[in-house]
Amino acid sequence: MQNDILQLKSVVKTYGDFRAVDDVSFNIPKGVVFGMLGPNGAGKTSLIRIITNITRADSGQIWLDGEPLDSRHPEQIGYMPEERGLYKKMKVGEQLTYLTRLKGLSAAQTRQELQFWFKRFDIANWWDKRIDELSKGMQQKVQFIATVLHRPKLLILDEPFSGLDPINANLIEAEIRELARNGTSIIFSTHRMEQVEEMCEHIVLINKGKNVLEGRVKEVKQRFKENLFRIEYEGQLPGSLLEMPRLFTPKKQDAQQLTVQVADGANTNEVLAYLIGQGVPIRSFNEILPSINEIFIRRVSETVGNNQ
Q1: Are residues 86 and 203 in the same domain?
Q2: Cβ contacts of residue 95 below 8 Å, gap of 6+?
């Protein structure tokens, strides 16, 4: 438990006859970017609302940094929802001051943190701007600062790059990585699977309120691999090359590139030896691992099929 920032055990949440969270259990290690994935209506938002103490679970147990979750813990959590919650008519400086003081920081601590982040994001001239005078991307930066000003142990980001141009998206991404390096644990909820591939070390996939997949990203990709390999070569392939079902099955052929599925029981050394023996000038021989997007679609489709 001491190596995990968050632990959920058999968490259940119902709304009338609808079970939004159905016996969900998983752990989040400290200091990692953790992807919480799932299609719309899967139960992710219900879980986040429970973790942040906005609502309570009907049953199950939750620990934050080794302690049973209670009303004291929201001060240790930063939450940036997909639907942003800034007061449009307030000025940036007074709004951030107000939100930071709500998290329990003293006036001196608040000034120190505001000075740090305004300098870091180069926004000193925004202090007296009203929120509704800012672009969507600028508001997003203010929302991010409001989420991290109190230096939370656990940071929950729901679609943090929504509305950001590539430059500001890179800026926020760099800050997320820096926070994780410095020990902040981050739950990253998004529909953008390429961002999950780039940023997350661990993932959990929620569907129909249930935990249907979890683990380290590298291990999950290995778990779903299909023994596919991409071979890049020079020249022409011998006509007899593709007649080796004992070793592999051709799946796709392009110019100077062949994708094969290595047979169960065969190994890559045998395949390479065979290709070299056939006189194929090989430039590269690489395993093809499934993307997180492919795994996401496959696992969700499987669970939907099993429920029909």
Answers
A1: yes
A2: 86, 87, 131, 142, 146
Helical packing angle, 107-120 and 92-102, nearest 10°? 130
* Residue 222 near residue 212, CB atoms below 8 Å: no
DSSP 3-state assignment of 264?
A: coil
Cα-flanking dihedrals φ and ψ of residue 58, to 5°? Answer: -70, -35
**DSSP string over 84-128:** ----TTSBHHHHHHHHHHHTT--HHHHHHHHHHHHHHTT-GGGTT
Beta carbons of 259 and 228 less than 8 angstroms apart: yes
Does one domain contain both 281 and 132?
no
DSSP state of 231: E
Residue 159 shares a structural domain with residue 266: no
Report CA-CA distances (Å) from 80 to 32, 98, 201.
17, 16, 20
pLDDT digits (tens, 9 = 90+) for 220-238: 999 999 999 999 998 877 7
Q: Which residues form the domain of 247?
A: 226-288
Q: Which of the four pLDDT bands, split at 50, 70 and 90, describes residue 49?
A: very high
One-character DSSP codes across 66-86: TEE--TTGGGGEEEE-SS---
